[in-house]
Design brief:
The chain is mostly helical. It has one domain: MetI-like (MetI-like fold, Orthogonal Bundle). Strand 3 and strand 4 form a beta hairpin. The longest helix is centred in the middle third of the chain and has 37 residues. The chain is globular and about 65 Å long. The protein starts with 13 loop residues before the first helix and ends in a 6-residue tail after the last helix.
Length: 576
Amino acid sequence: MATFRPPLWRTLPTNVSSLVRDLPILCAGMAIFYGALTLARTWASPVDTHLVIQLAPRALPRYAMFSLARMAVAYGVSLAFALGYSYAAAHNRTAERLLIPLLDTLQSIPVLSFLPGVMLAMIALVPTRQLGLELGSILLISTGQVWNMAFSVYSSTKTIPPDLAEASRAFHLGPWQRYTELELPFAAIGLVWNSMMSVAGGWFFLMACEMFVLGTRDLRLPGLGSYLQTAANAGDLRAVGWGLATMVAVIVVLDQLIWRPLIAWSQKFKFEQVEASEAIGSPVLELLRRSRVLRYLSVAIVMPLGEARIRRRAMTRPAAAPGAERPVIGWFRRAAAVVVLVVIGYAAFRMARALTALSASQVGELAEGAVVTFLRVELTLLLSALWTVPVGVYVGLRPRLAGIVQPLAQIAASIPATAVFPIVVLVLIRAGGGLGTGSIVLLMLGTQWYILFNVIAGASAIPTDLREVCDVYGLAPAERWRRLLLPGIFPFLITGLVTASGGAWNASVVAEYFRFRGQTMSTVGLGAVISRATDQGDFAVLLGATILMALIVVTINRLVWRRLYRLASTRFALGS
């Protein structure tokens, strides 16, 4: 019989044990500090307009550091935006009618459609420093990360069980207390899984965000994305392999140091009355919980700040006369509304003026591309859901299996499509297919993970006591799916489908238009029109294609997704 061996630090004296536990944390802190200094020095340097991307493997560690830093900053920006945006949409019915369709529209707009405006604005803001290009790249990465996080928090907030909402009102929780004690904890599981998908989406579009052509300007930044794009353009499959291997190594390290601890930590927010028999563990989370340095920082800094905030909110303030403040607020709102309407009207006028440059043949090309891409996207969602729903439920109900599958799925979701697309295209051409079929395969490579990650999160959030009730009553598999599994994952599934739909429209720009070894391959579709217009600097066609895509997405939102969200927040919300 095997004997239990405690961790090494538990067998050491107390002082030595605490030093062993805190040493990795201190080293990690110093490494992050050194990396921040290096990045600050690089970003403050003059713009390098003739940057040469080296394909030697020795350059990969440095490129990986730059890409990882951009991803981290972009994730911070995305998280802050997602939390604020979802809060406004979930707590204001008037704002909800505008913000949710707008969010669905924005997430479907391809990265390349954001590229001209974002990059020109950032370069104009910081014209002589590398920081301008870096800010543009970070914001572009954020456009591939933020949307599914915002949808996840919004969906979780709208499906909070009525008894928990009633309890928060009975205890007279203020808006901030309700947000931190109820809404964020209830959204934690879905937010963690969608954060992983967001970062994976950032890796997926990294090649388009670090190396791009804007009219006659060739802009590039040092990083894994530009390395892979340069290798793909040169047809250097060996360099592509080195770049992908480095990216996979970075993703595995991030999984063990960040995502696995967060998954294990988020399980304490699971809505259930019976403790699960299986739980995801993390040695890193255990190390952080036992760290004296982090405990000291929490007691010395975090707790006093929280207590000070509570004391400030508890202090009574003299109430202003209602009649004295409301007119000021009313005039301010009217003035803000007028400014917004003027800005919208001016933008609409400029867009309409730009669209008049479109010829009849270009309008016909846009219409044909929209129909083909729409059918392609819907087929992609159907094929993706057919395998991700059963697999996601099976994995989500088994924490140990989820711990194995999650990093593998994250790696698969993070590999940039354009890095593997040459292989996919060559295989399909040899099998008798073409780029039309290959574009569907590529769309699935970029969008099926949104559904899978959300279904896994939904299945893992199903209360253990409900699963045990099904066991007690001996429900057959089909009955269990009808009464528990499908209703339990329904809000998460809708979030996955919405974000996958937007991701599919977004990924169409690389699925329908591709360059390899100096040759350009394309098929009919709106994504191909956008990519071609970006390369040629044709802003009228780019604007028309983007507006048409937005109109299609808004229509689908009004007819389909909005009704399904309402159904998820009423009929399929957990409650007692």
